[in-house]
Amino acid sequence: MSATIVAGRKVPVGIIIFALAMGGFSIGTAEFAAMSLLPYYSATFGVTEADASHAISAYALGVVVGAPLLAVFGARMSRRWLLVGLMAFYALANLMAALAPSYPLMIIARFFAGFPHGAYFGVAMLLAASLVPHEKRTFAVSLVMTGLTVATLLGVPFASFLGQTIGWRWGIALVAILATATATLILLLAPRDAGNPAANPLRELSALKNRKVLLALLNGAVGFGGYFATYTYAASTLVEVTKVPEHYIPFVFMAMGVGMTVGTLIIGRLADRGLIATGWVILIVSFALQLIYPSATAHIWMVIPVLILINAFSSFGTVMQTWLMNVAGDAQTFAAAMNHASFNMANALGPFFAAMALSAGWGLPSTGYVAAMLYAVGMALYAIMIWDLKRDQA
């Protein structure tokens, strides 16, 4: 990758993208650690695991609410200062969640912690894409997303280890430290831009009138909910169904993180060559893996490879991000932020439907069947997206 001028000195583009990916690492640790720490904070607050999953849904709802608000009101701001501010807020909100004395207060803190998520990823990915040639945009986006996937490899297992040893609150406090480090790196390394005073917040909202944007967001919200339906309860399933010793769980999540990281990088390359085909591969393979998952949970030698593969094919957001860049027109910031809002709506819907299956007494393995149904809906929506695009191009 080439270099860009920052404060009169050349800074390699790769270093800037690393700083942006650090934010993804912080966000990924916060988002996924809440799932791996679920058994511990549910015990602390004396709530069931199904009820404890509301902390995950509260975060996702915060993303859905915060992404459009911050994208619209931050449209005229310098991207550098907007990203710094988002990470500073993220650090504070996660610190509040770590210190929450009661479960309702934790829910509130998690809701506000979700606010910067979508806007941060949206602005960071647009900045990364602007630093590379057009034909490498998806790979640049995937590099920013790699911060999130590496979080599942390192951040989440470490947070889970902290939860098992000195307490789940330290696992969440870790995020505040990472977010503070990210804000500092971006302040030092990101290009100094003056913002765009001519930007029109109402023009950003025009994305809501764009059918192609709305279809993509709906696809992300519904179709990708399947991933979170199983991931949310993966730790509980491994311990209670597969009978994996509890101290092995961080290593299982680390292996899942390896799958996600490698898969994201490969998918980023493939999507630059064939965006639509890559999306189909992700959805079809994920659907098949989720159907296998319930049977695999009975055997440790089956369930771990299946979980690794599920994570390897989890980068549908990378495909949708480039899709939105292609169809969003002048509403790039809003559409990019809403992409992550839609995937966090999936983060809310997946655990919600999975919790319904658990409450009905179907058992933890049934989350795989819930996931498969959501992926099936995702495939139908994806087919509609492609048909709609080709109809307009005809």
TrEMBL record:
Coiled coil: none annotated. The chain crosses the membrane at residues 12-35, 55-74, 81-101, 107-132, 139-162, 168-190, 213-235, 247-267, 274-293, 299-320, 341-362, 368-389. GO terms for molecular function: transmembrane transporter activity. Residues 16-390 form the Major facilitator superfamily (MFS) profile domain. It is found in: Cell membrane. It is a multi-pass membrane protein. InterPro entries: MFS, MFS_dom, MFS_Efflux_Transporters, MFS_trans_sf. GO terms for cellular component: plasma membrane. Keywords: Cell membrane, Membrane, Transmembrane, Transmembrane helix. This is MFS transporter, DHA1 family, arabinose polymer utilization protein.
